Amino acid sequence: MAKIIGAVGTSHIPAIGKAMDQGLEQTPYWKDFFDAYPPVRNWLNEQQPDIAVVFYNDHGLSFFLDKKPTFAIGAAPEYTNADEGWGIQPIAPITGETELAWHIINNLIEDEFDVTVCQELRVDHGLTVPMTLLWPNEEYRKIKVIPVAINCERHPMPKPSRSYKLGQSIGRAIQSWDSDEKVVVLGTGGLSHQLDGARAGFINREFDLYCMDKLVTSPEALLGYTNADLTETAGAQGVELAMWLAMRGALEGDVKLLHQNYHIPVSNTGAGLMLLEPS
Ligand code: DHB
Ligand code: FE
């Protein structure tokens, strides 16, 4: 059976992509942020996962306010990226993985998660920034990717507990796939941030660190939050915690924390990084 070898949570702030494009990683503003990534890159290099299942949110590139699936999954052989207005260089196409994608889709539907299936999908910074951050120099091209998009832009959004359960269901599906492929699960986004309105720039360091702690030890402690709670406590875009919950749900059970980092601010955001292994 396929094996989930670990999971990574990371923020996906567009400014990270621009900093990489411009070679600013070691400048004073960026150094502490980027210096946290080599241990995760090294772990990925040692483990050599074949497939990455990536929980992300689409900020308006493929799904705008007129059509917004609550949960969408890619079943395409390739995913293209496009300029979505943040000034990041578009990256070369990402390789898809269709066989496991369809296995997951069939299992999700059986499990009463009626996802939107995308056989064509353009992917935005929510997916591309983490891919280039974790596998720089186009090394991400060797990994096969299954994108899973969670609506974090237009109300009504899925409850945080529902995103966790989606992750659990996908975790079970991966582990029932008859294959010896190694799978890593990514959850991208967050942590606390608000991009516009009266509270633009709002960051809650204490809450972010609390969430990172609970994600490791007892994710159930986070499942009672509503999206209104998260908006109040972590800013309007703090709802992107959904992807970290889905990532943690896929691992289920006890986990080993191999690496973590928290850095503020990057742009307007509390930037988190976490590497987990099943224990
Ligand atoms: C920023 C952060 C995000 O997660 C995002 O999707 C867009 C912008 C930011 O801090 O600028
Ligand atoms: Fe985002």
Write a short abstract of this structure:
The chain is built from 9 helices and 11 strands. It has 279 residues and is of the alpha/beta class.
- By secondary-structure content and strand pairing, the structural class works out as alpha/beta
Major beta sheet summary = 8 strands, mixed
User: Helix and strand string, N-terminal first?
Assistant: EHHHEEEEHEEHEHEHHHEE
Number of helices: 9
End-to-end separation in angstroms reads 18 Å
In the sheet with the most strands, the strands line up as 6-3-8-2-9-1-11-10
Proportion of residues in helical segments: 25-40%
Radius of gyration over alpha carbons?
Answer: 17 Å
Approximate shape: globular
Contiguous runs where pLDDT drops below 50 for at least 5 residues: none
In total, the number of strands is 11
Q: What small molecules does the structure contain?
A: 3,4-dihydroxybenzoic acid, fe (iii) ion
Mean pLDDT across all amino acids: 97
Q: Strand content of the residues, in percent?
A: 15-25%
Report on this model:
The chain has 279 residues and is of the alpha/beta class. Helix content is 33%, strand content 23%. It is built from 9 helices and 11 strands. The protein has helices at residues 14-21, 31-34, 38-47, 98-110, 125-134, 160-175, 205-217, 227-234, 241-251, and strands at residues 3-10, 51-56, 71-74, 78-81, 94-95, 116-118, 122-123, 144-150, 182-188, 255-266, 269-278. The strands form 2 sheets. Strands 6-3-8-2-9-1-11-10 form an 8-stranded mixed beta sheet, with helices on both faces. Strands 5-4-7 form a 3-stranded mixed beta sheet. Helix 4 (98-110) crosses helix 6. The relative contact order is 0.23. The model has no long low-confidence stretch (mean pLDDT 97). Bound molecules: 3,4-dihydroxybenzoic acid and fe (iii) ion (FE). Residues 12, 57, 59, 126, 189, 237, 240 line the site of fe (iii) ion.
